[in-house]
Amino acid sequence: MPTSRRSAAPNPFGGGATYSISDLAREFALTTRAIRFYEDSGLVTPRRNGRARIYGERERVRIKLILRGKRLGLALSEIRELLDLYEVARNERAQISKFLALLADRRARLFQQKEDIDAVLAEIDGIERDCRRRLKEEDAANREGAAKSAPRVAALRRGRNVAGV
Description:
The chain is mainly alpha-helical. It is built from five helices and three strands.
């Protein structure tokens, strides 16, 4: 797993590790554009030193949580709500309770999708069986027709007409 580098620039805002946008992009295999999108969405709030963005450990952890939420299929609005709950309450109880509710909802949606997928797969199986049956019937009919017309074709090849004259 890639590790982040501590920025060479001193942290003008106090202690703690700082990271550049490139450091975080590299650590989390993201583009800098994705991180700026999270910033524009209010999910991370780097400090500024002129035009340079300075990310602290808080933003690093938030990006990690954003990516975990995305892997679980949560919407960015749901992820924002979880992150904001922690900021407001400053404890994990409200955040964990909300997270459990979101997970239960996500699980229910996934089970419904699974049922829908199973139903579609069963329908595909039925259609596939019907198509294969029809092809076999057509092949059998073609073989039967070929067997009936074989004497006529042989006669035509020998120079006789179908009536045998």
